[in-house]
Specification:
alpha/beta, 8 helices
């Protein structure tokens, strides 16, 4: 494989990596030669994912942890240091959504969304910085949503949390450039995962989504994971501070 398109020898940490976009991202990194540690809350789901990947000959590890808890983040980076002496790739994929009208959110729901989607990514980046700097060619990819770029009827706190990550991505790209750490973001539209399965079972809503998506289909998780993997490759070594919408054309069409 051309080294510009390879992740051979690279180390990667993927949060929310046991299913959906996170799992597809882990596979995309593994297929290109990276060694991957996935973090998720469900131990059983982690073991199921790891079993399949190891059977395929990939070097993958897992840790059950909650990235919103400081003591769990300590455990995550202790494990990273046990495995490797550096970190080349960090993918902040953990996210949650509670769909309400703005005036219907409880304070607890608001804090859960912002804490899970925004605060945890900020703190994961902060904790990872020394290891990413040690890499000499570090890459951070934050998984957002087109909800952070335009209105998609998912609720204000979710949109706010994703929009904040766009600006965090830009700021860190500039601040960390001198440390040779690139920071980018990927913003998916509807993707075939458990998180949106119930929504898309509504035929009328699914039709509206497809009507407003120029490519007229729902994304597959692998289509998101492949873009994340590209952003981590040497081939993307001059790309930083960018947010790439993987949306079938939705954000240039509107809802």
């Amino acid at each position: 494989m051309n080294e510009m398109w390879s992740l051979e020898g690279r180390t990667a940490l993927v949060t929310g990596g046991s299913r959906g976009i996170g799992a597809a991202t882990a596979v995309a990194l593994l297929e290109r030669g990276a060694t991957v540690l996935i973090v998720a809350r469900g131990e059983e789901q982690i073991e199921t994912a790891l079993s399949g990947w190891r059977d395929a000959g990939f070097e993958a590890y897992g840790l059950a942890a909650d990235v919103t808890a400081s003591e769990d983040r300590d455990r995550i980076f202790h494990r990273v240091r046990e495995l490797w002496d550096r970190l080349d790739i960090l993918v902040n994929n953990v996210g949650i959504n509670i769909r309400r009208k703005m005036v219907e959110y409880s304070r607890e729901e608001y804090e859960i969304i912002l804490g899970t989607n925004t605060d945890s990514a900020f703190r994961m980046c902060s904790d990872a910085w020394p290891l990413l700097k040690k890499s000499g060619a570090g890459s951070v990819v934050n998984i957002l949503s087109v909800a952070g770029l335009t209105h998609v009827r998912t609720g204000a706190p979710y949109a706010m949390s994703k929009a904040a990550l766009v600006q965090m991505t830009r700021n860190l790209a500039v601040e960390w450039a001198e440390d040779r750490i690139r920071v980018n973001a990927v913003a998916p539209w509807y993707t075939r995962t458990e998180m949106v399965e119930s929504l898309l079972q509504n035929d009328a809503y699914r039709k509206e989504v497809l009507d407003r998506t120029p490519m007229s289909r729902i994304a597959e998780p692998e289509e998101i994971g492949s873009v994340v993997a590209f952003l981590c490759m040497p081939a993307a070594s001059y790309v930083t501070g960018q947010c790439i919408a993987v949306d079938g054309g939705f954000t240039v069409h509107g809802f």
